[in-house]
Amino acid sequence: MNHQPFHHLHHVCIVVHDLDKAVAYYQSLGMGPWFDYPKGQPYVAFEVPNQAASDSMRYKCLDLANFQLQLCQPSLLDSPQRRFLDTHGEGVYHLGFEVADCDEAEAHARQAGVLPTARGRRADRSGFTYFDTRAGAGVVLEVRRTA
After folding, report:
1. Does a structural domain hold residue 141?
2. Which residue, among 98, 74, 94, 81, has the nearest Cα to 134 in the 3D structure?
3. pLDDT digit string (tens) for 24-75?
4. pLDDT at 2 (0 to 100)
5. Residue 115 sits in a domain of what CATH number?
6. Residue 4 domain-assigned?
7. CB-CB contact of 122 with 42 (8 Å)
8. Is the entire prediction scored with pTM above 0.85?
9. Are 2 and 27 in contact (CB under 8 A)?
């Protein structure tokens, strides 16, 4: 796998007001099957702006031929996703990139001047880091390592 953190697209995440309505629309276009976001093992490190908001977000995922599509319905609690939805409406919130090593990818991004906004790591070092890239990239960028 390439050592550049933003090289291998894993998923595109779209925030929506009504998850069930959005899934039904995509299904009407022949896109499916949808599944709940697999939570995996618990995080040993979990740094997010609002844990209650993070815990209450609903996700549905669809594996396509070349990437995964994720739909996210944030709760009414304050979160970056909720603020995005309230300010910009439904749309692409982040691009998720698969990496071999989350810590290495995070360090590489930090060296480029990009700061994390949220991160989580499991005991096996799988997990995620979101970066503050909206001003420069127009979208949030995330690195993740699947367990």
Report:
1. yes
2. 94
3. 999 999 999 999 987 778 899 999 999 999 999 999 999 999 999 999 999 9
4. 56
5. 3.10.180.10
6. no
7. yes
8. yes
9. no
Q: Give mean pLDDT, residues 1-8.
A: 80
Phi, psi of 32 (to 5 degrees): 175, 180
Rounded to 5 degrees, what are φ and ψ at 95? Answer: -110, 130
Q: Is residue 88 part of a domain?
A: yes
Q: What angle do CA 98, 16, 91 make, to 5 degrees?
A: 65
Beta pairing partners, 82 = none
3-state secondary structure string across 20-47: HHHHHHHHHCCCCCCEECCCCCCEEEEE
Residue type for position 5: P
Residue 45 in domain: yes
Give residue 147's pLDDT: 79
The domain tally of the chain equals 1
Indicate the helix (H) or strand (E) that contains 94: strand 91-98
Is the per-residue pLDDT at 76 higher than 70?
A: yes
Tokens in use for 52?
A: 């209650």
The rounded distance, in Å, linking the Cα atoms of 85 and 43 is 26
- Side-chain-side CA neighbours of 94 within 13 Å: the count stands at 21
pLDDT of residue 123: 94
